[in-house]
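User: As part of a screening pipeline, I want to sanity-check one entry by hand. Below is the sequence and the SMILES for zinc ion. Please return the complex as structure tokens so I can compare it with the automated output.
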Amino acid sequence: MGTSLTLFKVFGIEVRVHWSFILILIYGAFSATGGQINPILGALYGILVILLLFVCVTLHEFGHALVAKYYNVNVPSITLLPIGGVASLERMPDKPLEEFLIAIAGPLVNFALAVLLLPLAFLAYNFSPQSSVAPLSISNLFAMTQTPSLVGLLVNLTVTNIGLALFNLLPAFPMDGGRILRALLAMGMSYVQATRIAVLVGRLMAVLFAVWGILNASNGGILMLLIAFFIYVGGGSEREAVESRAVLKNILVSQALTPSAQRLYTSELVSRAVDLIMSSYQTDYPVMDLGGTFVGVLTRARLIYALHTNGADARIVDVMIPAAEVPTCSPRDNLSSVWEKMAETGSRDVAIKEGGNFLGLITIDDINEVFQVIGAAMTKSVPSNKGPQLPSNNTPETTGV
Ligand SMILES: [Zn+2]
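Assistant: Here is the complex for your manual check:
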């Protein structure tokens, strides 16, 4: 999402809009010009309809985001794309009931908006010139959506909100309905099993969406194809993440620590680290002070940077990552918690401490090694390794339009 513009920030959540959003506004302007007496007025009306529609999408995302925040899940941003909104949740809660409530909150916002908008549409109709000519009826209300009018706008938004809610409730994981399905399944089986079933159902839905999209290519089908693609790919990568986490949950930090790992001392020079790195496979070194207290980490990337800027005679204490920036876990935690700490902080390393004593580092390379060795054996269907990488730190949540 490199190219998005921040609109505003509320409840600590940045609301951003992706550049491609402009395409949907142009589409809105063009689609509303046909058959209008005044094409300019029609185009402006089309843009207004799209903008208000995305106000509803944003409120839908805030439904998810605020319930997530209630359960202490951080939500840094909401991004608006032509296919809908994405609320970036830093993690999904472990409890199925919490995921269920986060997922259902979005569609419930749209149902609530529809309930508020419909009486306003009736009220606006009573004050409109039409009310003296034609009695209030559903067909007369719908007739007014064809031309720019307040009544037409309100009816349009009511119908769209109901449509948004129903569409999002389809069991197409990782869309809301799919998350609801996963959460319900997870109440009676393992999280991994529930995710596998939800992803399978979601992929079947994606195929149906794609077929519909191809058959209706001239009538908004392209958006449906994009949504189908998102569901197919997004579901698969979430299943992998859940399976990986399940593998890591079975391994204790104490089992993964390397007792023989080399350490550096604050008084030493960078040249000492160069010697060590040339003679071993170890890439990340804990740095201790003379009293034996853990004070920082020197990674290979930091070392290379230090050699470029400070030279080999720099002191390690001046170039290391300070301990305050390195997250901490206990040896009794499992590797899944370590992985989560890495995702939350963006750190390659987690310091393992017990009762204030430093025991060692777990690095992202250690985690990837576990995936290679154990992951490949446990989940044969999953491609074993994609090289060292930090886990993705957001769980995108999407609303189709
Ligand atoms: Zn949603």
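Points to compare against the pipeline: The chain has 15 helices and eleven strands. The longest strand covers residues 4-10.
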